[in-house]
Structure prediction request, 1091 residues.
Amino acid sequence: MKLLPPRSPIKGSQEMLLIPCPYCGNRPEIEFAYGGEAHVVRAAAPRTVDDTAWTEFLYFRKNPRGDHAERWRHAYGCGRFFNVKRNTYTDQIEASYRIGETLP
Amino acid sequence: MTQPYRLSTGGRIDRSRTLTFSFDGKHYTGHPGDTLASALLANGVHLVGRSFKYHRPRGILTAGGEEPNALVGVGRDDAHFTPNLRATQVELYDGLTSESQNRSPSLMRDYGAVNDVFWRFFPAGFYYKTFMWPRKAWTKFFEPRIREMAGLGRSPKTADAARYAQRFAHCDVLVVGAGPAGLAAALAAAKTGARVILCDEQSEPGGSLLAEPEAMIDGLAAAEWLKAALVQLAAYPQVKILPRTIAFGYFPHNMIGLAQSLTDHDGEWDDSKPRGRLWQVRAKQVVIAAGAIERPLVFPDNDRPGIMLAEAARIYLERYGVLPGRRALVFTANDVAYRTALALHRAGCAIAGIVDLRPDAGGPLVTAAQKAGLPVFPASTIAGTDGRLRVTGATIKPIAGGSGQHVSCDVLLMSGGFTPSVHLFSQSRGKLVFDSTLDAFLPGAPAEACSVAGSAAGLQSLKEVLDSGAAAGGGAASYQVANAPLAQGGFIGAVPYHGDPGSVRAFLDYQNDVTAKDVVLALREGMRSVEHVKRFTTNGMATDQGKLSNMNALGIMAPVLNKPVPAIGTTTFRMPYTPVPFGYFGGYARGELFEPERRTAIHSWAAAQGAVFEDVSLWKRARYFPRGTEDMRQAVARECRAVRNGVGIFDASTLGKIEVVGPDAAEFLNRMYINAWTKLQPGKLRYGILLREDGFVIDDGVIGRISDTRFHVTTTTGGAARVLTMMEDYLQTEFPELDVWLTSTTEQYAVIAVQGPMAREVVQPLVEGADISAEAMPHMSMVECRIAGVPARLFRVSFTGELGFEINVPADYGRAVWEDLMESGRPYGITPYGTETMHVLRAEKGYIIVGQETDGTVTPDDVGYAGMIGKAKPDFVGKRALARAAFAAQTNRKQLVGLLTDDPAHVLEEGAHIVADPAQPKPMTMLGHVTSSYWSDALGRSIALALLRDGRARTGEQLYVPLENGNARVTVVSSVFYDPEGVRLNG
Prediction:
């Protein structure tokens, strides 16, 4: 599922990551919306996918302690979705790359 | 003269001015430069609080932010009142009003002190075990009593009169702490041209140098060097010094939260100035020079007023010109306490003795004390103290055993050595490393771009401290230092005292009243992890977060567990370093500025008509337009009648609107919505349903085809941003091959709904360039034209079941067009109606509201919309999910139905549950719930919509809605109550 939580643009005092948008450069987290795990592929022909695989696609997500590829949207900037490789324990961002590019 | 303990010279206070202040209603005097604590001590006041649990009399223990006892409420009135402030950090101003906490009726006579008499019955964890029976007594009796007895300060009852500012800042180097290490770091960084922010929690920069009369730095007395350093820093335009500023939190990517106090120190006299400012600083490099905190020694009855930390007593003497007492007993495991004894001795305070835990204390300070004739007791301990509201004496015993010796004193000064302040470093997730020679956790490998300098890194000599600061600031200065003391030696744990451990209390955590025995009890009860011991005993869980107690707790645990300290580990340091008032975080976002308020172009007209507004997401929407003395029900009934019988006008501007444009626009909508769009002709409208990928309804709205390549999509009011984001997501990431542009136009159009049998008569005269007759413009069609001279998209659409139009005009013209329509409708009795009437009218027709009839678990079939699905489409969002066998297997899904109560006057509660048999035992089997419920003027009775298990098959069944005042019997009917054939739409 690709729903982003609604976010209010004004209450940003808890947002602290510095996120490198591949289109705009480093911007504070307050400008972005989180988009969940990256590289969850929606099959081109969903009819050909069996129930088990579709259920996996819908509901199963990784929850790693460590490196995680995740989607962000520069919601209050360029509006583009992109991918980020972030360590969920240290919060350090190792890479950001465009949709369609492979995880570096 | 007052201030009997004030020395006539020395310190950084201004004796030329006298300030008056009050504490618990009694008036005292002090001087500019004092803290509340130093001024109270100058007046001989040590007793300032009662402890949290046992209500024991407590005094001022420290001279800084780690203070656990001297918590006070300060403020001239409730609107300027702050509880739980540390008196050691409250700067004195003229007229300061303060009060003690957690005592009744007074500090001297406190009824809660009965807890202290019965202390044996209140060990750690006592209330997990004691207040178990009877069960109800916990909420009704025990908890309220305990909350009353065990507490901190009172909350003010009125709103905070202060306002608060917030600021974002960037710098190359942020230096936390303006003591010698921080100053050296800032100087070195400034020399390289870096943008520097130097913050410090005290009223003036300097840290330990503010109480340093002896040391020489680069040939200057410490105070002179400090002055010169500040002059030098002030000359750099890119250096910002923030006093009274606490670095309370270290967040990822070198974001540091600073809380800067702006007006507290002068009494918050001017409410137009911000009281404080929250800084969110993004630093390329952080230098933590937060210093070290002196540890108490854990010995029996170590908490009486008059018992202080040795370095704190020296600070009161050197910085504030205050003698903490007339006869001091010193208890130490560290050399610097000798320095305190020598300084007090010189200032005229008798030294009753220096009790040193170490057998072999040496070094220049020890020698100097011996030379000055001060009585030193090596390898000795203190076995107990006496005095009720003030310490009056203590018993000294050799550690090896033997008989004790009682000495009298009016202050007892202790030093267990120093604990480096690694809080911020640990918050940054840097690793801590235990140093067994210092008995301290020191900063290890950093996780962020930060370094730690000075005594926060465990350094003990002033030269090392200064040089480490310079290195951290990117410089290579080598300072020349003379006459600086060395703070070597220390002790963690509970000191030996040769007594019955069951009969004494040696306090470990002063603020939470945790004793050494409580920690041992926790271990006996089976706690092993330091985190479990912390929670069982509450050690370190008070507002000081164990700044004084954590290391001693580990020192007590280690021998019992027979493990070295690093193997036990330490608890997690969390923000805030010291408490920060909520107002700092609220900042500007309060009152009217709490959230942006969205108003439509017609808002001002509705307000002038006396409309009652309701909040729908951030929008203000007119709910109804009462006339005269009408209440809501009367107004809504009148508005409903007007729409059903004549004509009504409604502001629908808040509907979300998205312009979908491009050669692939129709294909894009095919993939997003359940409906088929390819064959929809330009000029036609269709009601669209949007699912999530899991097959559940997430939004709906009417979509108009403007041309082959352009659609006007509407969404729910609350869903506008969500739908646009979802569309962008699929367009950018799943269907990037589609040539489509999405633009939010919600704010660009004002939308005016004109609904009712007379709607065409009202709109017609204002239309230019279009034929809106029933033949030329049937239901669910649209046309671009001019209305009241303004370019418009005119939709023939209805959310009421009546003939209706929705007029989209540029928002700036919204109110003008609205007023023209009102004028045009006057002969037909046009009636403005609000969202409440809109809800009733649509419910009479069984039209759903997404978010009311749906809750994120409702499929199109559940609400009877399966027929809208474009069957020939290979794919749309949610299609594959709906085809899963899991759905097909559910034969008992909740479906949308209507309910009619036996009593036509009974309007059911929305959210009420439906059961087959109200006499069944609880918990009952629920069949569904009421989603919408209204009085229907058109039907002359109540109506309700509900989601009901296998609902459509139950039509005609009688079921029950159990409510507080009895069971309502209902009959299941169709969800369309009014005009089921839909003929009125075609008027």
